Amino acid sequence: MRALGESIVTTQSAEIGKMNAWLAQWYPGRPTTVDYRPMMRDLSGLTGDALDETFLRDMIPHHMAAVMMSQRMLVQGRAEHREVADFARTVRDTQHGEIFQMNGYLADWFGGDWPMPYGAHPAGGGAPCTGGAPWGPGGMMGR
After folding, report:
1. What are the beta bridge partners of residue 128?
2. Number of H helices and number of E strands within the chain?
3. How far apart are the first and last CA of the chain?
4. 111 vs 10: which has the higher pLDDT
5. Within a 10 A sphere around the Cβ of 126, how many other Cβ atoms?
6. Span 104-113, pLDDT tens digits
7. Where does residue 51 fall: left (phi above 0), alpha (psi -120 to 50 degrees), or beta otherwise?
8. Phi, then psi, of 128 in degrees rounded to 5
9. CA–CA gap between residue 110 and residue 103 (Å, rounded)
């Protein structure tokens, strides 16, 4: 769980840096600051299983939003720069895989079937995601 969290922080911090550099390069002189609003609730009061489960449940929709925005941009051909389209593909594919990984953790560690939103499930149609499903090499999400 720690490795997943650290990987997400490292990756998303680098992505933010990359996007800020593109803004400065492609749109010099335009303001790049925005009012920051946290995308997830404060988890600082949680520990142990409660922290892990809440983090996973919150991070899945966070990732889903990025996957959907990236896919929409690609399908609609809205990227003005090739680098942005390439970036969107990477975000879509990487975070899509992490969604399945996180759903697998929820199922394995906290039991039960964890419903996937429509279209996000490898079998399609919003079927439940279970830790024992043999999707990809080596079982759940290829692990």
Report:
1. 115
2. 3, 2
3. 14
4. 10
5. 13
6. 999 999 986 6
7. alpha
8. -65, 150
9. 10
